Amino acid sequence: MAVLIDGKKVAADIREELKSKVEWLKSLSVRVPGLVTIMVGDNPASQSYVRSKGKACAEIGMFSKIEILPEETSEIKLLEMIDSYNSNDDFDGILVQLPLPKHINENKIIERISPEKDVDGFHPVSVGNLVIGKNTFYPCTPNGIVQLIKHYKIETAGKHVVVVGRSNIVGKPIANMLLQKKEGANAIVTVCHSAADVLSRYTKDADILIAAIGRANFITADMVKDGVAVIDVGINRIDDDSAPKGYKITGDVDFENVSKKASFITPVPGGVGPMTIAMLLQNTFLAYIKITKQKLA
Ligand code: NDP
Questions:
Q1: Cβ contacts of residue 121 below 8 Å, gap of 6+?
Q2: Is 294 within a domain?
Q3: Residues 92 and 151 in one domain
Q4: 232 labelled catalytic
Q5: Residue 61 is part of which domain span?
Q6: Which of 106, 195, 285, 287 has its CA 20 to 30 A from that of 91?
């Protein structure tokens, strides 16, 4: 039976450490790190993510603000708001909740955020630095995965990591992070996507399998080898009349059966999800440190 990777616990420890750092700043009567989250429209899932980010900031004593703009907000208006936060010294991190309404060009918005405040790690400068192996703001979900792998001392050097999914927010960055020639990485990485006709040809060879697909229970036990370490990024809602909300959250991996073959596995919920917010807080703290150092230099 697999070792359960407890993302909730690892994330709680990271948040606790950040909380004591923020308390220390408060004891010095200096400014604390600040994060602004900008959301356009009223997508319920985005609203819930934005609320939990605000709550997480408050719990560790960081300053946070949530800007909710109407669906019809123009691209220009949003760009102007980003400009104002780029030059607002109370905020170290700027996060624009995605997806944005169709009339707004997401790339243009992401590129307008100052790379110094790019705590989501989606700006082309951050992405470029990540690819060439320079220290940068790593995107939160991939960074959370790397932290879990390190925490559980799962060997990556020379191991075959198979990533299923090639999105800009999960698949591509995690593949690039684990490919780097450094400690906690140095893996042989394969990235799969929907054009793979027989996906199991790749997944069966994985020492570490990272599933970021968005399809409930898609990875089944016959698709993995004994001893694989499984990181399930998926968050899928499936109808469940017995659940109070009428649905339950499940991952991309058939947990019940795959866990019988795996050496390590993340549950959903309670695996990668909690790490994503912890990494956002960590990035905001890092942005604060960098910005403060620059001011003192
Ligand atoms: P995307 O929809 O952007 O990407 C999904 C990827 O899966 C695509 O690359 C797609 O291929 C690939 N895919 C789809 N079907 C297949 C298939 N049959 N075989 C192989 N590959 C396939 O999703 P995200 O990366 O944004 O998110 C993935 C999942 O992770 C979602 O459930 C999301 O909710 C969750 N998530 C969880 C987070 C967390 O904090 N835990 C954070 C972010 C996401 P193609 O490119 O060819 O279309």
A1: 127, 130, 136, 137, 138, 139, 140, 143, 173, 283
A2: no
A3: no
A4: no
A5: 30-115
A6: 106
Is residue 47 annotated as part of the catalytic site, yes or no? no
Query: Same domain, yes or no, for 83 and 178?
Result: no
Cα-to-centroid distance, 293 and ligand 1 (Å): 37
Average pLDDT, the chain: 97
pLDDT tens-digit series, residues 165-215? 999 999 999 999 999 999 999 999 999 999 999 999 999 999 999 999 999
8 assigned to active site: no
Name which of 288, 276, 272 is nearest 120 in CA terms: 276
Do 257 and 221 meet the contact criterion of CB atoms below 8 Å apart?
A: yes
For residue 77, give the CATH number of its domain: 3.40.50.10860
Residue with the nearest Cα to atom 42 of ligand 1? 141
Residue 147 lies in a domain: yes
Answer whether residue 203 is part of any domain: yes
Contact between 149 and 168 (Cβ < 8 Å): no
Q: Where are the alpha helices (DSSP H) in 164-230?
A: 171-179, 200-203
Distance 205 CA to ligand 1 centre (A): 20
Q: Which pTM does this prediction carry?
A: 0.97
Ligand 1 closest atom vs CA 251: 32
Pocket of ligand 1 (CB under 6 A): 141, 164-167, 169-171, 192-196, 199, 212-215, 233-236, 272-273, 276
Beta bridge partners of 175: none
Q: What is the pLDDT of residue 295?
A: 87
Number of domains in the chain: 2
Same domain, 93 and 60: yes
Query: Are both 110 and 170 inside the same structural domain?
Result: no
Q: Environment class of residue 248 by beta-carbon count within 10 Å: exposed (0-12), middle (13-18) or buried (19+)?
A: middle
Q: How far is the CA of 212 from the centre of ligand 1 (A)?
A: 4
**Could you give the CA distance from residue 144 to residue 258 in angstroms, rounded to a whole number?**
22
Domain for residue 25, yes or no?
Answer: no
Cβ atoms within 10 Å of 197's Cβ, excluding its own: 6
